[in-house]
Amino acid sequence: MNKQILVVSVLQIFADLLRSNQYLLILAGFLSSLIFVFALVISGVLCKSMGWKVNWFFIIFCFIVGNTIAITIDGIAMTTCTLFSFVELFLLYNLSKKVY
């Protein structure tokens, strides 16, 4: 939870700086996609401790959270957050297939 708060704080504090350059907008999208991953891992741990499985509802909710934070920076940040989130979701899926 602390990592999410730290990433959101950095994004909001440096929002004007992140909007100043295209490469920094891509960085903002990547950082927002990390929020998606952190939220997904947290919800996965909570679901597993309660005996549930992580279904599409949790994935979509975490995706919306990450993109909502990205859209506060810029639309390009949201687009790159979406792309990075799909890649990270694919990597998490393959990792979970190997572990479990």
Fold and architecture overview:
It is found in: Membrane. Keywords: Membrane, Transmembrane, Transmembrane helix. It comes from Anaeramoeba flamelloides. This is Keratinocyte-associated protein. It is a multi-pass membrane protein. The longest helix has 29 residues. The protein has five helices and no strands. It starts with a helix and ends with a helix. It is mainly alpha-helical. The chain has one domain. Helix 1 packs antiparallel against helix 3.
SSE arrangement:
Elements: H1 2-13, H2 15-19, H3 22-50, H4 56-71, H5 75-99
Helix pairs in contact: 1-3, 3-4, 3-5, 4-5
How would you summarize this macromolecular structure in one to three sentences?
By secondary structure, this protein is mostly helical. The protein has helices at 2-13, 15-19, 22-50, 56-71, 75-99.
| Count of the separate structural domains | 1
The poorly predicted ranges are none
Tally of helical runs? 5
What series of H and E elements makes up the topology?
HHHHH
Determine the structural class based on helices, strands and strand pairing: mainly alpha
The fraction of residues assigned to DSSP E strands is under 5%
Helix percentage: over 70%
Give the overall shape, derived from the CA principal axes.
elongated
Question: What is the mean pLDDT?
Answer: 92
Radius of gyration in whole Å, from Cα? 14 Å
Instruction: Tell me how many strands there are.
Output: 0
Largest sheet: none
Through-space gap between termini = 24 Å
Transmembrane segments: 25-47, 54-70, 76-95
GO cellular component, one term: membrane
Main location: membrane
Family: Belongs to the KRTCAP2 family.
